[in-house]
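Annotators were shown the component list below and the corresponding predicted structure, then asked to write short factual statements about the assembly.
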Amino acid sequence: MEDRIYVFIIGTAGCGKTYFTKAFSEYLDMKRIDHIIVNLDPGAENIPYQADVDVREWIRLDSIMEKYGVGPNGAQIISADLIAGKVEEVKDEIMLYSADYVLVDTPGQMELFTLRASSELIIQSFGKNNCVSVFLFDPVISQRASGFTSLVFMFSSASMKLGIPQIPVLSKSDLLPEHEIEKIVKWSKDPDFLYDGLAIERGISRDLFHMLRDSGFIREVIPVSSITGFGMDDVYEIIQDIYYSGEDIERLRY
Ligand SMILES: Nc1nc2c(ncn2[C@@H]2O[C@H](COP(=O)(O)OP(=O)(O)OP(=O)(O)O)[C@@H](O)[C@H]2O)c(=O)[nH]1
Ligand SMILES: [Mg+2]
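Structure shown to annotators:
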């Protein structure tokens, strides 16, 4: 296995991917761990970190809009597909750096990365056994049992599509009161408690819920804050466990 670990930061629009990338990079800096940041979002504006490799070098959303006469959403889809043709260039540039960790910030809408062909090609090129994803749960959506469960379905979808170990993380936890964090973590650890929460809200087909529970996709979420740095050490340790402590990677794949 190649020594470096590629960490893809994924999640719904605005869930905190870019700031998590920055905060995790600062955490690695503090630990003096060599790493680089790759920005894969062609539409990113005002990135708060210094990207070492930036897809905007090859593909820019504004030029795509102009060239193809499409709006921002159409341009995002075209860009996502064009990235597929630039994978080797991106990889070559990454290889110019010596780094133990490569943090990869992905585009706003999750499906642009997870559901399109470019993600498969990227993961194939980086080496499936070197890749892990951090899936950020939006804290506001996660506050309701139905919202949290919907995100678990999205987590499952990303996990199945990418086929790499995926870590569930509760983003921006500094925005939530302690009891709300505890409730969400308990939902993630105890599916029966989540089922009760759903029943109170609006109910869910018992069969559908059992299918989700039995699939093993409801997994303990790690609360983090990119503002305070809270939880970054937990995420780091989980990644280390996956790759260096004999953790069975196949168990985390679907
Ligand atoms: N309080 C708080 N705010 C955060 C945190 N992380 C991100 N934010 C804020 O949430 C907003 C969105 O964060 P981003 O990191 O840009 O989210 P993103 O998922 O990269 O967004 P897109 O790429 O546009 O989908 C920004 O205004 C951040 O300042 C956090 O841990 N705590
Ligand atoms: Mg972003």
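Statements collected:
1. The longest strand covers residues 5-11.
2. The chain has eleven helices and seven strands.
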